[in-house]
Amino acid sequence: MSRSTPKSRIPVSSRNAAGAGRTAKLGPAAAGRYHHGNLRAELVSAAIKIVDRRGPDGLTIRLVAEQAGVSHNAPYHHFRDKGAILEAASISCINAMVDSLRRRLHRTRGNALDQLICMGVEFVRFAMEHPAEFRLIHRPELRNPRGGCCGDAPTSPVEAAWSNARQLLMEAVRRGQQDGIIRCGDPDMIVLAWWCLVNGFANKVLNFFDDKRCTNAPDPLVSAHALLEHLVNGIRNK
Amino acid sequence: MSRSTPKSRIPVSSRNAAGAGRTAKLGPAAAGRYHHGNLRAELVSAAIKIVDRRGPDGLTIRLVAEQAGVSHNAPYHHFRDKGAILEAASISCINAMVDSLRRRLHRTRGNALDQLICMGVEFVRFAMEHPAEFRLIHRPELRNPRGGCCGDAPTSPVEAAWSNARQLLMEAVRRGQQDGIIRCGDPDMIVLAWWCLVNGFANKVLNFFDDKRCTNAPDPLVSAHALLEHLVNGIRNK
DNA sequence: CAACCCTTGTTGACACTGTCAAGATAGGCT
DNA sequence: AGCCTATCTTGACAGTGTCAACAAGGGTTG
Predict the structure, then answer these.
(1) Strand C contact residues in chain A (49-68), C-beta within 7 Å
(2) CA distances (Å), B83 to each of B64, B66, B88, B142, in order?
(3) Which of A150, A198, A226 sits opposite B214 (nearest CB)?
C-alpha cells in the first residue's frame, strides 16, 4: 500500500530515457545554476555512489538529492518515487555488468565453452567487486510488471536490460551448437543452467560464504571456474 | 556497518526511582493481562505473518507489536532492534524449510541421486509457496558476523540454521559416494553446485521468470527437475 | 507477611524518511 | 514584450526506528 500513488507528477518529456535530440546546451554541469541541466543523470550516478557506500538499503532520496546538490524534492521531477530511482540505478548497473561480460567475451580466444566459462567467472568477479550494485540489480522490488510476456511485448526497462545479458549467453550457446561442441537441445535450458549456477554462486559468495574461503579454496573465482567446468562438461558434445 | 548499535537496552532494567505519585491508565491492550507471558514467540510468528502478507520490506516493528496486541515499544524488550526481529523470523523460516527438505528426504525411496533431485524440487516448491519467506531468509543484511570461521567457532544463529540444510545435503552426497553411485571428489563441491543451481533457479523463478513460464515449461517444478537431472548426470559415477 | 528488585510492559518524544502541495525561477515560445 | 511550462525550492505531514522515563507484577529475600 505504501507505494500506490499512480498520480504522476512527472512531466512527460522526462519520461523518455536520456533526453535525446535536445537542443539545450548542457555543457559543463554548471554548479550554481537554478536549472541543473543534467540532473537526472547526475541523480542516477549519485544513487549508485550511495549504494556502493551504504548498500541498497542505505539509499535515501534526500541523500541522493544532497549528493547532487539539489533540494530534497528535486528528484521528484525526474522520478516518480524512490523505486524509480532504484530502477534507473539498477538499469545502469545491469548495463555496466553486461558490458563487462561482453568485453570479456570479445577478449576470449577459445570456443563457446571457454567463453561460457570466462563470462561466468567475469560475472562472479563483477559481483565481488561491486557487491552493493550486484545486490541492487537483484532486488525483487524492481518493477517487473509481468505484462508483455510471450510475444516480445513491451516489458519493463529492467527486464529489457536483463535480456541483453541473456542474449549474450544464448548467442554463445547457439554458436557452440553450430560448431558441434555443445550438444543439441534447448539452448534456453543451457543458458538457464549457466545462469542459475553462476548467479547462485555469486549470491553465496556475497552472503554466507566463509567456509569455502577458509578451508581449501582461497579464491572464489577459482571455485567459480571449477563449478563452470562442471557445467561445461555436462553440456559438451561427446 | 549500517546497523551497528552496540548499545543494548534489553536486560538493562531502567532503574530510575523518580516520581512515584503517577497512576498510569491500566493495560489498554495485551488481551487483559499486563504481562503477556509468551510475547517473544508471538512476535516472531506475527512477523512471519506480516512478511507473508506484505513482503520483507513491509515489516514494521509497530505493525508487529500491533499484531501481537502490545505497545509499539514492547518488542524492544525481546529484540535489540528491527534486524533482530528479522533475524528471529528468518531462523524460524529456515528451520521450516529444512524440515520440509528432511521430510521429503525421508519420503524418497530411491538412491542418493534421486534424493538430491527430490530435495531440490522441494526447495523450489518451498520458494514458490512461501515467496516472501524465501526472500526473507536470503536477506544479506541478516547478521552473519564473519566471526568464527574455520574451527566451528560460534557462528551466528542464522548461520547455524543454514548449516543444518547443508548437512542434509552433505550426508546424501557422502552416502551416494559410499554406495558408488556418485563419483569421488570433494563432496563440498557437489553440494555447492547443487545449492547454487537450486538457489539460483528459485531466485529466478521468483524474480524475472516470465519467459519460461510462457514458452514451453508451464511448471517451474518441471524445469527444476530437468535442471537437477542435468546436475545429477554430471556427478554420477560412470 | 512486607520490602524490594528485576523483568516486562507502557507512554512520550525525537530525528529521519517518503511524499504531497504550493511558490519561485528560467529558458523558450508566441 | 508577455506568457508557458519544466524545473527547482521551501514547507508540511504521516510513518518509522529508537531512546528515555515510568508503571505493573512476579519472584526473592528479610
Answers:
(1) 59-63
(2) 13, 18, 9, 7
(3) A150
Q: How far apart are CA A80 and CA A7, in angstroms?
A: 9
Q: Could you tell me the domains of chain B?
A: 34-79 (1.10.10), 94-235 (1.10.357.10)
- A142 pLDDT band (50/70/90 cuts)? confident
Can you tell me whether residue B182 is helix, strand or coil?
A: strand
Phi and psi based region of residue B154 (left: phi greater than 0; alpha: psi -120 to 50; beta: remaining):
beta
* Pure H helices in chain B: 39-54, 61-68, 82-107, 112-129, 131-137, 157-179, 187-206, 211-214, 220-235
Mean of pLDDT over chain A: 81
User: So what's the pLDDT on residue B143?
Assistant: 57
For chain B, the C-alpha Rg in angstroms (whole number) is 22
* Cβ contact B207–A140 (<8 Å): yes
Distance of residue A106 Cα from the nearest chain B Cα, in angstroms = 26
B31 secondary structure, DSSP code: G
Bridge partner residues of A68 (DSSP): none
Task: Output the pLDDT for position B212.
Answer: 44
pLDDT above 60: residue A25: no
